[in-house]
Specification:
Layout lengths: L17 E7 L2 E4 L18 E7 L3 H11 L4 H7 L15 E4 L4 E9 L8 H7 L1 E9 L3 E6 L4 H12 L2 H4 L2 H14 L2 H20 L3 H32 L8 H67 L14 H23 L4
Helix pairs in contact: 3-7, 4-6, 6-9, 7-8, 7-9, 8-9, 9-10
Amino acid sequence: MFEGAKLTDNTPRTLFMIEIRLYKDGRILTIPREELGLHAESSLSEEEMIWVDLIDPSREEELFVLSSFFPVHELVLEDMHHAISQSESHMLHHPKIEDYGTYLFVIMHSMIPPSTKTDNVLNYLNAMDEAQLNILVGKRVLITHHGKQIGAADNLRGSCARNPLLMRRGPDYLLHLLLDDLVDDYLPLVQLLDERIEELERNVFTKPGNTTLVRVLSVKRELQKVRRVLAYQREILSRMSRGEFALVSSEEAFYYRNVYDHLVRLTDQIDEARDLAMSIMEAYFSVSSARLNQVMKVLTVFSTVFLPITFITSLYGMNFQFMPELRQEWGYPAVIAVIIATVVSMVFFFKRRGWLD
């Protein structure tokens, strides 16, 4: 946290919205925001860099950093605001990268696992959250902007604290570390989706009901959502690994290729899971159709068996005075015997033909 602020037991963590780290003379200095203006990018040497982390900042703090210290285009500010303000009409912005000459503007998405652990895969998936991470990369300045606590940013802070020389390599190297952690954060989600699909695959044959179909569609929708985000981010990593941007050095481009390979493997896993989800849906409809056919076959057999019985009882139910065997003592037992014999004969015939299997 920036110096000049004191934490007390009653001070909420969210009061401190800006974290500023200056690498200088082999050390990382945490400076107060009041001194940020003294370390403009033009005043930094090749051996120095500064990282500003904005965590759920206020509008005043955004303008202080993004207008006074590191001025950015108004369209950049508008896109960055999606990370803070979320509503039905103001959702997360899709991942992208834009080159503004003196700086790069990158939007990435990060998966946030639930705070409470659960063994139920569906509950875990429903509790997972997604956050937008805005990144500005200058020649000697890195600015991260997000509305929620993001694990990749926390990991980068810890890595820099353990090894200050990481910041000496510049913002493009720190960005590679940040993106690598962001990609790795998707691994637990992909594994959970795989487990969920395997569970649904078993349920299709053991519990082929409407609930199973709803769950399959839910997982399929989640896979499509993740696949869309990963596709955007894969394109970003592809462009950065090709050395398309001057602010990403050719030496660091090799590291971006490694992150790109990780992202390609994740995308392939998602594609395989989507194909399996489609196969599960097809299997569900096949199983449902087979069950329906079986039910219809049983109903047809019963209807066929009762057809001659209905005919016989209807025939002798006619109220004509002159009918054969109508006044005979053995008339009723004879009709019952004919009915039984008819039923037994038809069941035997169906069994011989394999229609009851």
